[in-house]
Amino acid sequence: MTELTKTTAQNDPDVQIILVVGNSRSGTTMMGRILGKHKSVFTFNEDHFFEELWYPEENPQPMGRLDAVKLVARLFSTQRDGYFYQGDIQKYMDEAERVFDGLDSSSATPPRVFEAFLKYEAGRYGKNIVCLQTPRNVYYIREILALHPGAYFVNMIRDPRGVLLSQKRRWLGRFSGSRKIPFFHIVRTWADYHPITISMLWRSGIRAGDQFTDSPRVFQVRFEDLVNAPQEMVQKICTFCNLDYQPEMLMVSQVGSSNRTDKPDQMGIDASVPGRWKQGGLTAAEIHISQVMTQNGMARHNYIKEPVSPNPLAILVSGIAWAGKSILVLIFNRHRVKNLFSAIRKRLVK
After folding, report:
1. Among 7, 51, 28, which Cα is nearest to 342's?
2. How distant, in Å, are the alpha carbons of 3, 63, 116, 170, 323 from that of 191?
3. Confidence of residue 171 (pLDDT cuts 50, 70, 90)
4. HEC profile for 172-214?
5. Start-to-end CA span in the chain (Å)
6. How far from chain centre, in Å, is Cα 86?
7. What is the Cα–Cα distance from 217 to 240, expressed in whole angstroms?
8. Which residue in 118, 202, 317, 333 is a FRET match for 20, CA 20 to 30 A apart?
9. Per-residue pLDDT tens for 46-90?
10. CA atoms of 64 and 67, how far apart (whole Å)
11. What's the CA gap between 240 and 152, in Å, rounded?
């Protein structure tokens, strides 16, 4: 490690953090890429620190050295190896110890250890602003602001029917360019999809973000507005985050879509994405379920209901299937949160 990196890791003031949040498949990854194109911003892969590695409603307590070092090593593995390929963290233990040595051990709580990791990793690339693009953090805006009052939140909002179509096809990502997806994740993603489940999650995510509509630290961005007027919206986001706008921020690769094959060599924001759900892929029953369950949030964010005539039998069959899939969701996702029942309450209780 260079002397410059040591200085960045140990002596900098609290790191500036931008958090991109919202419902999954609402453009959070694309927004993270846009911000990551800025010369001062380093965008992390989805870290899942809050809720999976540390529960934000806990009272932070100092960690012992070994536990703190293991946490940093796990974060290194998540960032560098990939969330789905976290393996033996021993190869990162020596580097993790150096990160811990830059902390005051008496205040080495999980959030402070996490912050030290962020500063260190961003510093390796010469960046001094951190961007976290983990969608589920929308449920913990209040708790994160208590830890980082200076943080900025960019809350992504997308038409629930667009989210529904993207989630429906997400498990096919292995065959559209995202080849490095473990089979277990493919099955879990398939199990996670159901119009009732996705609509409930959209509704709860919108409700969580809307609590901070008037907050000076939270900026709401409709996905459709971003792709239709990218320069205008990115300039507004930069102003909000106290960044200077740079035109190259719009030059992101067109990858990660559930609705088409990745085009990593094609740069820019694809304006054809909004309304793609109208071109097929969703049944009348799925659209009806989505619109009924999300109607209040749709109205608040100016999404127009589409007239559909679903088959009542199809709706009944969907309801029956939801019961079975809900059990699979609990089985496949129980390891992804520290407190399963609290996570469910955050998402599904009105």
Report:
1. 51
2. 48, 36, 36, 11, 11
3. confident
4. HHHHCCCCCCCHHHHHHHHHHCCHHHHHHHHHHHHHHHHCCCC
5. 49
6. 18
7. 8
8. 333
9. 999 999 899 887 788 999 999 999 999 999 999 999 877 777 899
10. 5
11. 8
Q: At what angle do helices 110-124 and 65-81 cross, to 10 degrees?
A: 40
Burial class (CB in 10 A: 0-12, 13-18, 19+), 26: buried
The domain ranges of the chain are 3-61+109-348
Residue found under tokens 């209901």: 305
Token match 């369950």: residue?
A: 293
Residues 6+ apart with CB under 8 A from 51: 136, 139, 140, 337, 338, 339, 343
The residue with tokens 């999954």 is: 24
Q: Is 194 exposed, middle or buried (0-12, 13-18, 19+ CB in 10 A)?
A: buried
Q: Are 153 and 240 in contact (CB under 8 A)?
A: no
